[in-house]
Structures are given as C-alpha cells and as structure tokens.
C-alpha cells in the first residue's frame, strides 16, 4: 500500500476529461461574470452568450483544457493519492486494507496536491481565460483605456491556444504564463483541502459499513457535494485570479494580487468578490461528480475490483 501507484494518474486523466466536458459551458459563464463586462446575473450572462455567440460560445476555448486539464487532474489526483498513501504507510507502517483515513494524512496530501496544481494549472488556466475573454464587450470596455487597443478593433488578440502561448511568451516572457499564479496558490491550497477531505468523509459516511467501498451513487453524490463546497468557498480568490489572468489581453490594469483586490473593492465593493459564486457552486457539483466518478470507475476497471476505490 505504501508503494507508488501509476493507475491513480491514469484514472485521474479519465476523470479530468469527463469533468471538462461536463463543466466547460458553466466555466465560460463564470469567467465572463468575473472578468468581463456587460453581464448582469448568471441567467443574464447565459442569455447574452447564447444570443451573441450561439451554443458554441459556451464551448469557446474548450479544446485546450480538454487535453491539458485531463493531464492536470491526472497529476493532482495521482499526487494526492500517492502522498496520502505514503503518509498512511509511514504512520502505521503496515496499514490494513480498508483502514480508515485520518485528517492528519488527508490535510498535508491535499495541500501538496494544491501546490503541485498551480505549477501545472496556472498556464492552462491563463490560456483558457484569455481565449474565453475574447468578446466584443470586453474589447469595447478596454478601448478607451489604452491607445494600442483601438488598433486591434474587432480582431481577436489570439487565433487559438498555440498562438495564445506564443503571443504571451513573446510579449510577457515565460513568467507571463504564470500571471495570477500567486492568487491561484491562495485559492487552490485551501481549495483542495475542502475538495478531497469532504469527499473522503462524505463517501465514507454514505457508504454502509457492510460495503468495502463506495457505490457509484455514493461517489457521485459525495464528489458533487465536495465540488460545490470547494468551489463555493474558493470564489473570492477565484475572482482575483480570473481578473489577473484576463488582465493583459488588451491592457494591464493590475500590479499584483493586493492591487487587484484594492482596485476591485474600490470600484465595485465587497460584493465583487462573490461574483459568480452561484455558478461556481452549481458548476462545481456536476464537474466534481463527473471527476470522481470517472476516477473511481476507471480505477475499479484498471484494478479489476468489484467496488470503487477512493483516492
């Protein structure tokens, strides 16, 4: 049990792909609400996107995260599972199969997963946000702020994921790919603690004692609830991250995390940090349910188990 297990990474990749397909439409709405202009409520944003861009507008920028976030989730789940297993093995020396998982193992494993997630996820998130924010209202809102923006007119800044990466590296250097990484770190370290820990305890609580592992229904419910909790509580720092990452498409408004928080608060008040909390929590449930269900069922198939095996 203390050994490194590669199947956690494979199962994480499959679960990650499932979560992207399920959650990307609402992720686009979330990004527009948090970093864009011209949108009111969540329903107003959905109607506006559909009216201006049709149903395809909700899937703008999905190709890149579909491949990259699958790899990202593979690493996050693999790191969490193997770290938690290592800590459990170190604590108990010979942990029994099915032995209860404790907070002292889950908390550091979640924190390590959160730190690792930023190293991989910051560039992925940046490119996704930049592509999602290529909208007419966003361009028009910035036309008066910097002369060079006017020259772009209706021309999108990026032609696709590869062009986006090349443009960012050319204009901002490699460090530009990690714009907003500090805010992402402040979001993801506590965020993954409130992701994995509730999932483990909820799935254990829902599962009857006679069963050796959670059923698919228990996995779906516990995963969805964990996602809603994690994304709901992460919203304030997610707003800051989204604004920092969207910054730089046409202009540069913020100098860093504190400056972004200060400017956002001065212009829009405290409520701005809870913008998108509804769509975050609603989107978090199906995304995380798909993520954990894909992970658990894949792990079950790989190992040939008859019951799901929790991370």
UniProtKB/TrEMBL annotation:
Annotated Pfam families: Mito_carr (PF00153)
Keyword set, alphabetical order: Membrane, Mitochondrion, Mitochondrion inner membrane, Repeat, Transmembrane, Transmembrane helix, Transport
Single annotated GO MF: transmembrane transporter activity
Recorded topology in the membrane: Multi-pass membrane protein
Subcellular location: Mitochondrion inner membrane
Annotated InterPro entries: MCP, MCP_dom_sf, MCP_transmembrane, Mitochondrial_Carrier
Subcellular location, principal: mitochondrion
Coiled coil: none
The family this protein is said to belong to: Belongs to the mitochondrial carrier (TC 2.A.29) family.
Protein name: Solute carrier family 25 member 48
Species the sequence originates in: Monodon monoceros
Phylogenetic lineage: Eukaryota, Metazoa, Chordata, Craniata, Vertebrata
């Amino acid at each position: 049990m203390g050994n490194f297990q590669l199947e956690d990474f494979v199962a994480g990749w499959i679960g990650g792909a499932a979560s992207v397909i399920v959650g990307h439409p609402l992720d686009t709405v979330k990004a527009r609400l948090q970093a864009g202009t011209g949108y009111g409520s969540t329903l107003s944003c959905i109607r506006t996107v559909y009216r201006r861009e049709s149903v395809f507008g909700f899937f703008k920028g999905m190709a890149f995260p579909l491949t990259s976030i699958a790899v990202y989730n593979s690493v996050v789940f693999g790191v969490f599972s193997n770290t938690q297993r290592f800590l459990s093995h170190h604590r108990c020396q010979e942990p029994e199969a099915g032995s209860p998982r404790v907070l002292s193992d889950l908390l550091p494993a979640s924190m390590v997963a959160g730190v690792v997630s930023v190293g991989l996820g910051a560039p992925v998130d940046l490119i996704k946000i930049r592509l999602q924010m290529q909208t007419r209202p966003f361009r028009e809102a910035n036309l008066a702020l910097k002369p060079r923006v006017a020259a772009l007119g209706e021309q999108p800044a990026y032609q696709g994921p590869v062009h986006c990466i090349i443009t960012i590296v050319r204009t901002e250097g490699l460090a530009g790919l990690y714009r907003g990484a500090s805010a992402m770190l402040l979001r993801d370290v506590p965020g993954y603690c409130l992701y994995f820990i509730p999932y483990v305890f909820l799935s254990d609580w829902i599962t009857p004692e006679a069963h050796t592992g959670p059923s698919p229904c228990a996995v779906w419910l516990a995963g969805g609830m964990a996602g809603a909790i994690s994304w709901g509580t992460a919203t304030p720092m997610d707003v800051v991250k989204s604004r920092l990452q969207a910054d730089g498409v046409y202009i540069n408004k913020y100098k860093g995390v504190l400056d972004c928080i200060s400017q956002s608060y001065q212009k829009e008040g405290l409520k701005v940090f809870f913008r998108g909390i509804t769509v975050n929590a609603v989107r978090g449930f199906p995304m995380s349910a798909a993520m954990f269900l894909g992970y658990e069922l894949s792990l079950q198939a790989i190992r040939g188990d008859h019951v799901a095996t929790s991370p």
